[in-house]
Amino acid sequence: VRLLLRLLLPTSSILCVLLWFLISSSTMISNAADISNLARVSFSNSSLPERDTRHMHASTYGARYYRESIPKYTFPKTSIPAKVAYQLVHDEITLDGLPEQNMASFVTTWMEPEGLKLINESLNKNLADVDQYPQTREIHQRCVSMLADIFNAPNARRRSSSAAPAEGAKEIEKGEAGDDDDDDVVYEPVSVGTSTIGSSEAFMLAGLALKFNWRNRMTKLGKPTDKPNLVLGHNAQVALEKFCRYFDVEPRFVDVTQDTNFILSPKKAMELIDENTIGVVAILGSTYTGAFEPVEELDRMLHELHEKKGWYVPIHVDAASGGFIAPFLFPDLKWDFRLEMVRSINVSGHKYGLAMPGIGWVLFKDRADLAEELVFHIAYLGGDMPTYSLNFSRNASSVIAQYYSFLRLGFEGYKDIMFTCQRNALLLEECLRRMDHWNIWSDASCSLPVVAFSLKWGKDGGDYDDYDVSHKLRQKNWIVPAYTMP
Q1: Which residues are paired to 403 by β-bridges?
Q2: How far apart are CA 142 and CA 387, in angstroms?
Q3: 231 and 271 Cβ atoms separated by less than 8 Å
Q4: Judging by DSSP bridges, how do beta strands 250-254 and 277-283 pair with one another?
Q5: Which residue of 241, 281, 377, 428 has the lowest C-beta tally within 10 Å?
């Protein structure tokens, strides 16, 4: 008996294991069938409300964190892991156009890894808190000084190491700069300026300075100050129109036509000026064709007007795009602070200034051109801090990126890059001319390195227009704007 049990025991164990496996498998199959049936019943039950995916992120991922949809417009109730949140946002923004193929704006879309590293390192610094980040503020002031230099600002002597005076430097009486030693001086710009979010904010500040200075002059003369006006071309950026509407200034538009190359005509501008004109805006690089407006001619006419009628009408130059083109490609062109009536300039560092989006600059020729009404002194962040801006707290990364580009490239580096841009634009112009299907409205040899063109109507006899061409290019991810000329 004992021998028989020993022989049957292994077989019994195997049979028991097989029996347990079959029972377990049958149970799992039964449960799976029940779940499947339940799912079919649930999805086919028309009484259940359908989920509105327009307000929720759809559960398109297999991860367990996506078992429930994530709200789009209401605050999420629960948290999700960082990698999951990153993937969700990352995948959604891939639906945007490719910045590298965006020809619709002049905004910088690439920087070297070292520049991007500095941006990341300075994201947590508040540019407004100069008491806590004094070196960042010093870098900011260096950028203003460098811009004043390439914009040919007047200069004043200050105590420092020996240096040769810049051409056209402004002489200061002894004692005015606090230094009686003429051998130990350098020449630094007396211009003042500040960084902004972009050229829109920059012009708002410049426009307010024009308005306040005009109001102060009229008040001294005992004249009314309730009807200020600003003269500008119809090719001006919308930011200028915003300024007029937001700050109660009458915009007086100068018609721009094909006869004037779609830019402001100084003669037509003079017809709109009166004693209530706070200033005239000249654009260095029209949005329509990239052409430079004749600032020097306008300066001469306004100077003559001042001598004849006593009306002081300053010029603000909107150099959002051209401010980093003219100094390097057209150094002999007079459009900047070399002209007497040019009192303020705005420029976009995130365009041809070669910094990432979010940086603009406004410069005033002299401290007197910056109206005192614009300057506020605050102390609650520590120390006395004068500030004039429409924004306050923001990170310092854009200023740091701008300073990096200035140091990295220098004058020769910027000149080489702008020359390459100009050469590419001229090549594209020539290729379009050879195709004989296009009208070319720009001339990159004497303006911004851009190409403005339109279809020759009736040339092909096709039922399509410039907007169709733009749409077709978009299908290849090229973003080329189509717009109507005035």
Answers
A1: none
A2: 17
A3: no
A4: unpaired
A5: 377
